[in-house]
Amino acid sequence: MARHLITSALPYINGIKHLGNMVGSMLPADVYSRYLRLRGHDVLYICATDEHGTPAELAAKEQGLPVDTFCAQAHDAQKAIYDGFALAFDHFGRSSSPQNAELTQHFARRLNENGFIEERAIRQVYSPTDGRFLPDRYVEGTCPHCGYDKARGDQCENCTRVLDPTDLIDPRSAISGSTDLEVRETKHLFLLQSKLQGEVEAWIDEVADEWPQLASSIARKWLTEGLHDRAITRDLDWGVPVPADTWPELAAEGKVFYVWFDAPIEYIGATKEWAEAAPDENRDWKSWWYGPDGADDVRYTEFMAKDNVPFHSVMFPATEMGVREPWKKVDFLKAFNWLTYYGGKFSTSQRRGVFTDQALDILPADYWRYFLIANAPESDDSSFTWEHFTATVNKDLADTLGNFVNRVLSFSRKRFGDDVPAGGEPGEAERKLGEQITALLSEYETQMEALQFRKAAAALRALWSAGNSYLEEKAPWLEIKTDQDGAALTLRTAMNLIHLYAVVSEPFIPASSKAMRAAFTLADDTATWVTPDEARSLTRIPAGTPFTVPPVLFAKITDEDLESYKERFGGAPE
After folding, report:
1. 345 forms bridges with which residues in the sheet?
2. 47 is in an annotated binding site
3. Binding of Zn(2+): at which residues (predicted)?
4. 143 known member of a binding site
């Protein structure tokens, strides 16, 4: 089977993430990773916290903690939430790791040796009020391209254009708000991306036609506008230090690499962390990333929201090309639009919308996992509303799937006891059901292979609905009055559907799938997927198999619940 390397955009260390961050990178990556594992592929899913940069320094200062202590605590807090969402990372690392520092410095040295790094004296924004140079993110102002008045000095959140602080109109310090800013001279290292433009364009022409239009169009837009040389160092205390053996003067000044340079390298660094975390297992991290060591056979898929696309589709590939070493580049970049909250942006800074820790306090992870993937912002932005969330949970999860499982198992136990009943031979209804399930399963597989998550969710929902339609057609509660064997056959077939649902729903709702699977006491239940023949015959669960009725899988959200959620988080804008 194929080897699949999967990464998602690194969540920044500063603060708990909202649902938009979850659906825009980590959750779809997890769903896809789980699906590939079930199909028998060798999968490595890597992620990490992105820990360098001024926001981490400032957040630590606000909490009165050393920045390394703050980052360690914040990493553990984020990891606990992702565990709560059942994100099955193979490794969830940290960009502040020694492995990432070693690799970042290696990349920088190689780029320098190959003529792609240049030391330049530049004029940089300095705030006398704050007593420091202001890194890009801590200069705010009006974007000269779209007029957004809260643009940062590195990128406009509204139009996604990359900026320099001096591009901003009416700039101000994001720390103090002071407009008393000066421009002073300092030295920094620049990555000469302009010299790599042609190579990046040729590579994009080879691979990007396979990508979603959102990802490929952003990459090509950047290339059309031209790659610019960009500073890769900053005047900060926290970060990967510039190596003194190559740049002694800058190292003496305490320069560190800019977060956008070292963060993508952490994908490789985190894989090295994964290998070194279990030395007895002989994990080979290079076989996933370095061509001669086996990475040529790896398919690499990245997941991220559209604002991260330029860094991963153009800037990091340019870095990889510039080192003149055969590092693995992305094969497929799955980009997402925004998930909005009643049409407005989720915002970490403004605490607008539902955050991941709050979500898990309200309802179990499977409710959120299913809703978010079923409404993923793939082709355009999608909106979270409590009304839509409630309707989806109640209709799809509680009524369609949960109610089917409960009434089949409860009715069979009541009329036939604690073992799967035998019943008669399958008839025309079972044959039609088997063909329908086989076709729907094929559609589900097709959409998952294509990373079309909303369509995959629709196919999964159709699989669940097929069971309800079969049950309504056969009506075993009536059938049992005149044909006990027929009713037993209906229930045995429905129980096989429950087991099938448990297997194929696992990427979306892993906890509920585990509960459905555990309802049957099979001697050897090692199924990882369902073949077409198995879907057609629906005989995996034989007569006589003991079963139990699990607790209610999905509780309905009541009108009172809905109103309480809206009161707590806010509903539609006035």
Report:
1. 340
2. no
3. 143, 146, 156, 159
4. yes
